[in-house]
Specification:
Shape: globular
Distance between the termini: 38 Å
Number of strands: 11
Structural class: alpha+beta
Oligomer: single chain
Helix content: 25-40%
Radius of gyration: 20 Å
Strand content: 5-15%
Length: 381
């Protein structure tokens, strides 16, 4: 079966597809209680983190030193709105900007929600893509809702063997690289819109293009880039205090909204907290609560995916991105290639950020270890 790629830019350097998602059943093995815990590992956790301090420190230490973890570069745990644990790998720190990979999709999804709230877009209408609105074009049946839920029906193959056969690689590095959205939007339907789930980085680039189209009438690349950049800063990044964020754009001025936004671990944690507070920060509602509910509600065609975000729910396929068997069922997560996570658990008041480099095909132990961290915190009824 085809598995969803959690980001794509590094595929140009790799000889094989990078599409195996993490599967996670039970928890990972608890690091031996008798193993020495360094002072630095314990110091990374505050005195009263809302969970057993030494156990939390040990489980975070396991993310950095345990077998099968790959390279963990940053971990932040926030509980009840405060940082209760923060640790960085050698060479990384509070000022380091980390690449989002596919975590960027959730940022793009929130931006679209703001444009819907502004009255510039409608969920159940054909988006403003001129070619799709031509008389007789079957893509005119695609709605914004279907794009957000990855069920547009467009022919977008996320992986390939060899890798250069994947539509993501063609869009980012080959035929489509100069105007990614135009290339993605030109693809034909392979299924009736709304009937089939297919995770697609290309689809999120289409969403980013839609945002640019409603924010400016100009086709000038710099004007398009500035319109989206200013909107992201004014409506999301500055209100949330995410001052480190650096989005990337293609030559046509389209946000590469499926994979390329950079920011510090603390700023990624701030975005997770914004989601946990249902689109509000310091009492100000930046996007309607209903939009976050929509994003975190299972798609009609994929119980473990909402709208530009993964859900901790059982999959109807052999794809297991999180740890649904362990819960909590309301946990959801931004997930990026090579093991980028911003996990949000509303009933635990919890946001967990892990950034680093772990091959997608062997990510099971990492996901299990993150589940162990989450499991330490009580779940409110």
């Amino acid at each position: 079966m085809k598995r969803p790629l959690l980001s794509i830019a590094s595929l140009a350097l790799l000889p094989a597809p990078l599409l195996a998602l993490a599967a996670c059943g039970g928890g990972s093995e608890e690091p031996a209680a008798t193993a020495p815990l360094s002072e630095a590992a314990l110091d990374a956790v505050v005195a009263d983190p809302g969970a057993p301090r030494e156990q939390l420190a040990r489980r975070i230490d396991h993310l950095f030193t345990g077998e099968g973890m790959g390279e963990t570069r940053a971990v932040i745990v926030m509980q009840g709105g405060r940082i209760v644990a923060e640790r960085y790998g050698e060479g990384y720190g509070e000022e380091t900007r980390f690449i989002s990979w596919s975590m960027a999709k959730t940022v793009t999804g929130v931006m679209i929600g703001m444009l819907v709230a502004d009255g510039k877009l409608q969920l159940d209408e054909t988006p403003p893509i001129p070619n799709w609105r031509r008389t007789g074009d079957p893509r005119g049946a695609i709605t914004l809702r279907q794009l957000l839920q990855m069920r547009s029906g467009l022919r977008h193959t996320e992986s390939g063997d060899p890798a250069y056969e994947a539509d993501t690689v063609k869009m980012l590095f080959l035929q489509g690289r100069d105007d990614m959205a135009a290339w993605a939007e030109a693809q034909p339907l392979e299924a009736k819109p709304g009937t089939h789930f297919e995770y697609s980085t290309n689809t999120t680039v289409i969403l980013a293009d839609i945002a640019a189209r409603v924010l400016t009438d100009s086709t000038d690349p710099e004007t398009r880039r500035k319109a989206v950049d200013d909107y992201l800063k004014a409506r999301i990044f500055v209100p949330l205090g995410m001052y480190s964020m650096v989005p990337e754009y293609d030559r046509a001025g389209t946000l590469i909204g499926g994979s390329l936004i950079h920011g510090t671990a603390r700023d990624w944690a701030r975005f997770g907290e914004f989601l946990r507070h249902q689109g509000a920060v310091k009492g100000a509602q930046l996007v309607p609560k209903g939009w976050i509910t929509f994003m975190t509600t299972p798609s009609p065609r994929s119980p473990d995916y909402g709208a530009q975000i993964w859900l901790n729910r059982p999959s109807e396929t052999d794809r297991n991105v999180l740890f649904a068997a362990r819960g909590p069922s309301d946990l959801y997560s931004m997930v990026g290639h090579l093991g980028q996570y911003v996990m949000v658990s509303p009933r635990q008041g919890l946001t967990v950020v892990r950034l680093g480099k772990t091959d997608d095909a062997i990510r099971d132990p990492l996901v299990a270890a993150l589940g162990d961290v989450v499991a330490l915190f009580p779940v409110r009824k």
